[in-house]
Design brief:
Layout lengths: L1 E8 L2 E7 L4 E6 L12 E3 L4 H14 L16 H10 L8 E2 H7 L6 H9 L12 E2 L12 H19 L1
Parallel strand pairs: 1-4, 5-6
Antiparallel strand pairs: 1-2, 2-3
Helix pairs in contact: 3-4
Length: about 160
C-alpha cells in the first residue's frame, strides 16, 4: 500500500509519502499541485511514521532539531543512493558545492552527475539537498524552488548562530 499525509510548514505545504514501513517521499507543494499523489494512494494521517516525521519536522523548523531519525527508503541508482547518503553527512547550518560533494564521493569530475542525483532526491529537507550550492557560492537549482532553499539555509544559519552564542 502507498500512503500520504500533508503538513503545513514555514516553507509551504509538504506531502509525506510512505510504503507503511519507511518514508519514501517529502514533496514541497505549490498552490497548483494536486494534494493527492495518485489514485492508488491512501491518505493516512494517523500512520505512526507520519506522526513521528511531522514531530521531527516541526522541531527542525523550530530550531530544536538538527538531524532526523526516521526510516527512509529512497529508490534510485546506486550512484544516486551514494549521493543521498553523503548529503546526510553535510553538517546542519553549512553548505558545500556540487564539486566538493563529487570529491567526497571520490570523483572530482562528477559534479554534474552529483547535481542530477541531488535534484532527484525524493526526501527533501530530511535528506538535506538544500545544503549544496554552486562553486561560486550562489544558490542553484532546487526542486522546491530557490526561495525555499534560501529559507531553509537562512533558518539553519540563524539557529546555528544562536546555538554558538
Amino acid at each position: 500500500m502507498s500512503y500520504y499525509t500533508l503538513l503545513d510548514s514555514p516553507v509551504g505545504k509538504l506531502r509525506l509519502t510512505s510504503d507503511g514501513q519507511a518514508l519514501t517521499g517529502l514533496d514541497m507543494l505549490n498552490a497548483e499541485d494536486d494534494l493527492n499523489p495518485g489514485k492508488d494512494w491512501i491518505e493516512k494521517d494517523d500512520l505512526e511514521l507520519f506522526q513521528s516525521t511531522k514531530k521531527q519536522l516541526k522541531e527542525y523548523f523550530a530550531g530544536k532539531r538538527r538531524d532526523f531519525d526516521l526510516p527512509c527508503f529512497m529508490e534510485g541508482t546506486e550512484f544516486s543512493r551514494r549521493v543521498w547518503k553523503e548529503l546526510t553527512r553535510i553538517p546542519y547550518g553549512t553548505t558545500i558545492s556540487y564539486g566538493e560533494l563529487a570529491r567526497r564521493l571520490g570523483n572530482d569530475k562528477a559534479s554534474r552527475a552529483v547535481g542530477l542525483a541531488n535534484g532527484r532526491n525524493p526526501i527533501g529537507i530530511i535528506v538535506p539537498c538544500h545544503r549544496v550550492i554552486g562553486a561560486n557560492g550562489t544558490l542553484t537549482g532546487y526542486g522546491g524552488g530557490l526561495e525555499r532553499k534560501r529559507m531553509l539555509l537562512d533558518l539553519e544559519q540563524r539557529n546555528d548562530n544562536q546555538t554558538k552564542s
